[in-house]
Amino acid sequence: MRGRKASAVDAVAQTEASAIAKERAQAIYEVYLGQCTVARACARLHVGPARFHQLQKQLMRSSVAGVEPRPAGRPRKLVTPEQAQLAALERARQAMQVELGMAETRAEIALVLPRVLQPAEAAAASAPEKKTRRRPSQRRPRAQRTRS
Predict the structure, then answer these.
(1) Torsion, Cα of 26, 32, 35, 37 (10° steps)
(2) How many Cβ atoms from other residues are within 10 Å of residue 44's Cβ?
(3) Which residues contact 12 (CB under 8 A, 6 or more apart)?
């Protein structure tokens, strides 16, 4: 086999944890690998055999739980009802802000160009009704028509 041999004891030293947690994990792994006896590990950690076995079980449970398969990707954010309500209120506020801006713009245009924004009904009512005359017929009078 090529490369260097993996060592659990060396791997513990490279993890991010407190010094006490690293020392406990190193002692437990040394016992598993047969490099140290339980009595020696207990003396090094200043704990009794019962506590050592508790720590051993706890390490195994947490290490197995750590390699449990999980769904791929980032976990979903849980949205609380308060956060959902806050987001809805924020959307409503933004919509109202847009409507206010549009109303202000219409008011400014109405001041500068009053005829542009007149409603169609008001413009039709104020303008006199245009009368249309009927176009004269291009047909010849009946008497002038010839029969063929």
Answers:
(1) 100
(2) 15
(3) 22, 25, 26, 29
